[in-house]
Amino acid sequence: MITLRKAIARGHADHGWLNSHHTFSFANYYDPNHMGYRSLRVINEDWVAPSKGFPSHSHRDMEIITYVLDGALEHRDSMGNSSIIRPGEVQRMTAGTGVSHSEYNHSKSDGVHLLQIWLLPAQNNLEPSYEQKSYSSSEKRGNLRLIASQDGRDGSVTVHQDVNFYGTLLNNGEQVTHAIKPDRHVWVQVAQGSVVLNGHLLAQGDAAALDDEGTLELVGKDNSELLVFDLA
What we know:
It is a single chain. The chain has one helix at about 135-140, and strands at about 1-5, 10-15, 20, 40-50, 55-60, 65-70, 75, 80-85, 90-95, 100-105, 110-120, 130-135, 145-150, 155-160, 165-170, 175-180, 185-190, 195, 200, 205-210, 215-220, 225-230. It is mainly β. It has 2 domains: about 10-135, Jelly Rolls, CATH 2.60.120.10; about 135-230, Jelly Rolls (Sandwich), CATH 2.60.120.10. Strands 1-20-17-22-15-13-14 form a 7-stranded mixed sheet. It has a 7-stranded antiparallel sheet with strand order 2-3-4-11-6-9-12, with no helix packed on it. The longest helix has 4 residues, at about 135-140. Its cofactor is Fe cation. Keywords: Iron, Metal-binding.
């Protein structure tokens, strides 16, 4: 079964400095039919205005992945980490017993476009930790590049949940397939461009859940960037 989640149906909040679209219930957007998918709890598509950002705020018991699509985002946290996240780089933060962080766009002219992804951890009260890695376009071009996994294999960042998170870039007509094992579930998020997913046309911001499907087939339309979550 394939269930589509169209971009236009998402929650939306415009704070002036932050324009955010919520795939799942978040903050003031509440939809009991869209509280998450398996261990996926949040996928927010955010645009942060120049010289603006998120002030320091706290999280706990959550696996947080930041995936920047355009621009550069500064990260600082209570663990002492300070970094800049750019396109192609992925940051993972385990909030665990509690962590505070801030994110800021220092550009005076360019916005930052990113996806904020939260996963429920397999267990609570973990020790907070941080990881950031870079994945080149060539690794993702026409290929499902493993970006995050429970065991950190193949150079992926380590998340404390049974998930295999892939990124891919597809040119027009380029195709990738993914075999879905029994009792696994897949969520596909279109980050940029458009794609045909098992015969369904999806545009930027659209998503799809695949349950009891044996194969995921993606065919690029416009130059596209996609996130694929294979979940327990």
